[in-house]
Amino acid sequence: MKRRLLFLGPPGAGKGTQAQRLAQHHELLHLSTGDLLRAEVSSGSELGRRAEAVMARGELVSDELVLAIVRQRLEAQPSGWLLDGFPRNLAQAEALDGLLRELGQAIELVVLMELPDAVLLQRLLQRGRDDDDELVIRNRLEVYRQQTAPLIQHYRDRDLLRPIDAAGSMDEVTQRIEALVSGAV
Ligand code: B4P
Fold this sequence. Notes:
Layout: E1 4-8, H1 15-26, E2 29-32, H2 33-43, H3 46-57, H4 63-74, E3 81-84, H5 90-103, E4 109-114, H6 117-127, H7 134-148, H8 150-157, E5 161-165, H9 170-181
Parallel strand pairs: 1-3, 1-4, 2-3, 4-5
The protein binds BIS(adenosine)-5'-tetraphosphate.
């Protein structure tokens, strides 16, 4: 069973949904940079105030800020972890590689969740979070294509990438991921 995992995929692919299930089932630390940033925004902290406007536009929050959040949690040396929504660009991926080297840890598997844009848009519009407005979603998809999608090659080169079809029911997607993580496929 792989215990150091990363979930990659466009907004609305279900990274958060599946990460929560898997982390609970296997007692992994679920590290969602989106959730952590939203918690900062709700708390009204200085960090949250800086992140709020950026998130409302669907842009990426600064690497420095996101890295500080991740470093703090990984330094606590959890026995297993699942990174959800981080890294989101090459600079973050390289910073993560450096941080993990420093901590003597390594990513064991990168799950790439694939889904067509039309389905992503439909799922997010249905959810209706503050940043799930159609124009903002289209911008988030563009940001994904330009800044996050290059990570696919980064992890393919390291032979860590495993794509899955993120369409179907939540249970079907969970089964596909469980099979990968347990090494059954
Ligand atoms: P995130 O919180 O990461 O959100 P997301 O990518 O939009 O959604 P996710 O893929 O997790 O989808 P979910 O499971 O919720 O990012 C939000 C913002 O935070 C970013 O735009 C950015 O500004 C900022 N941010 C976060 N990380 C950052 C970083 N590292 N650097 C800089 N900025 C960062 O699923 C979506 C919906 O689909 C849900 O309603 C769910 O119920 C539904 N769904 C899931 N699976 C389904 C299924 N199988 N069938 C039907 N519906 C399903």
